[in-house]
Design goal:
Layout (H helix, E strand, L loop, with lengths): L18 E5 L2 E4 H15 L5 E4 L4 H12 L4 E4 L5 H11 L3 E4 L13 E4 L23 E6 L9 E5 H15 L6 E4 L6 H14 L2 E4 L5 H9 L4 E4 L1 H10 L4 H8 L3 E4 L6 H11 L3 E7 L3 E5 L13 E2 L4 E5 L13 E6 L6 E2 L3 H7 L6 E9 L5 E6 L4 E4 L2 E4 H9 L4 E11 L3 E10 L8 H11 L8 E4 L21 E5 L2
Helix pairs in contact: 1-2, 4-5, 6-8, 7-9
Length: about 500
């Protein structure tokens, strides 16, 4: 089955004066984007694969559209990437050239690659006719996105064109996303959330996106007040929004007027959900996805609120929970590993047939490594990663996420993370890593343990509390639990 390249973005045509991309004071209409990206696409058609220096700029957006028009796979590069990791990505993906803004300073590791400067002003009016564009199959690779290498070097997940289109079209259904929507976000553009959902999503719908460059609550308020209808963010952004609402009536009004607020990349604490809804009357919708799968589930805009869940499987996505044995979870309330199957999945880890084979079951289910429960309505509640967030203590399977939410509900806790550590008696003991609201007067272990036990169950209380100035997070706001291995300052425990 083949897919005309221009069908990725039906509104991308000469003469269309609707705004497509806005970064600061720079805007391209669909007609201008068609001309600019079309010119660049002609330069790329002979390339096998291209790297993209993915700064949060208009040039990055133009570059990715041009590469997709040229049917050339894109390798987005994090501008903050370390030299060693960058060399690994380049040697693994072997791009023919690198796309970058004309004034971007590139690291020495990219010096050997041919560089094409991405221009945002139309080069000439002779845009190639649509029927001369290549027509790749839907399984042709669109992106190679590198995962964080928690257990080794990063792996390049090859995302085919069908995974992009199926996810964006399923979100159209779940979120009632239309050409009238204007999305605002300040997310990085080297990963699937900011780039594929946040840039390509609006373009696929024929709507527009306004990128803040750098996230700020002032920018969010300005754009939502100025006509934007949707906001994408990660929990750290929504936490900053929740913290600002009491002193910023303009922000309250801006959020209250939004059609859709979406959080992703990590779980949004229930406390922040509740504060935003109480102040604005708007609920934040969560969705669940991965680099390898794009989006799997979402709370539907026309469904129940789903606070604390990531909603139901998207159209076309199959989802099941399995035991460690691989058998489906039989207990309706039981925790299991999420496995998914559908057109949204990646095809392989580049150059890693062993890792690809290990990631899939014999009948094509992808092992996500995420642990969850599914309620009677089919809504999925993530309890954490299998490797770091599933704690086996005293014969119980315990998800770190629910303990974290309980801790965050305590007024003396600003940030919280929960891990398990080996224990001769319990198997694993629950450790709470806390950033106190007032560092000069941190909460005691007994107060926090009693608080958790009262909200959840006694066996879920933390056995030890460790105090930190801040939790380690990556660029997307996810807590990096593998770095939580020893107390930075003395904590307290039950002995």
């Amino acid at each position: 089955m083949s897919e005309p390249t221009h069908d990725l973005f039906p509104a991308l045509r000469p003469g269309n004066d609707r705004p497509a991309l806005t970064f600061g004071d720079r805007t391209l209409t669909y007609g201008q984007l068609a001309e600019t990206a079309g010119t660049l696409a002609e330069e790329l058609r002979s390339a096998g694969r291209v790297a993209l220096w993915a700064t949060p700029t208009l040039e990055t957006a133009v570059g990715v559209v041009a590469a997709l028009q040229a049917a050339v796979p894109v390798v987005p590069l994090n501008p903050k990437i370390g030299e060693g990791e960058l060399r690994h990505v380049l040697s693994d993906s072997t791009p023919d050239l690198v796309l970058a803004a004309p004034d971007a300073e590139l690291p020495s590791a990219l010096a050997e690659l041919a560089r094409i400067a991405v221009r945002t002003t139309p080069g000439h009016p002779d845009v190639p006719a649509q029927d001369t564009a290549p027509r790749p199959t839907e399984d042709a690779p669109a992106f190679v996105v590198y995962t964080s290498g928690t257990t080794g070097p990063p792996k390049g997940a090859v995302l085919p064109r069908r995974s992009v289109t199926s996810t964006l079209d399923a979100l159209e259904d779940s979120w009632q996303w239309t050409a009238d929507d204007v999305l605002v976000h300040g997310l990085p553009l080297f990963h699937v959330h900011g780039l594929i959902l946040g840039i390509l999503g609006p373009l696929r719908r024929g709507g527009s996106v306004r990128h803040l460059g750098r996230f700020s609550t002032e920018g969010v308020a300005r754009e939502l007040t100025g006509g934007a209808t949707m906001l994408f963010g990660v929990p750290t952004m929504y936490h900053r929004i929740a913290e600002s609402l009491a002193d910023d009536p303009g922000l309250v009004n801006a959020l209250a007027g939004a059609r859709l607020l979406v959080s992703g990349s990590a779980a949004l604490p229930v406390h922040d959900h509740e504060r935003i809804t109480a102040a604005t009357g708007r609920r934040v919708i969560e969705r669940y996805g991965m680099t390898e799968t794009l989006m799997n589930t979402s709370v539907r805009v026309d469904g129940p609120p789903g606070t604390g869940t990531v909603g139901v499987p998207l159209r076309g996505v199959e989802l099941r929970l399995v035991e460690e044995s691989g058998e489906p979870v039989a207990d309706p309330d039981g925790i299991g590993e999420i496995e998914v199957r559908g057109p949204n999945l990646f095809t392989e880890y580049l150059n890693r047939p062993d890792a690809t084979a290990a990631a899939f079951t014999a009948d094509g289910w992808f092992r996500t490594g995420d642990m969850a429960v599914v309620d009677a309505h089919g809504a999925v509640r993530i309890v954490g990663r299998k490797a770091t967030d599933l704690i086996k203590s005293g014969g119980y399977k315990i998800g770190a996420g629910e303990i974290e939410n309980a801790l965050l509900d305590h007024p003396d806790v600003r940030e919280a993370a929960v891990t398990g550590e080996p224990d001769a008696d319990l198997g694993e003991r629950i450790i709470a890593w806390i950033v106190p609201s007032d560092p000069s007067s941190p909460p005691s272990h007994s107060r926090l343990a009693d608080h958790v036990a009262a909200q959840l169950a006694p066996h879920k209380r933390p056995r030890e509390v460790r105090l930190l100035d801040a939790l380690p997070r990556n660029d997307m706001g996810k807590i990096m639990k593998r770095r939580l291995t020893a107390p930075a300052t003395p904590g307290n425990s039950d002995g």
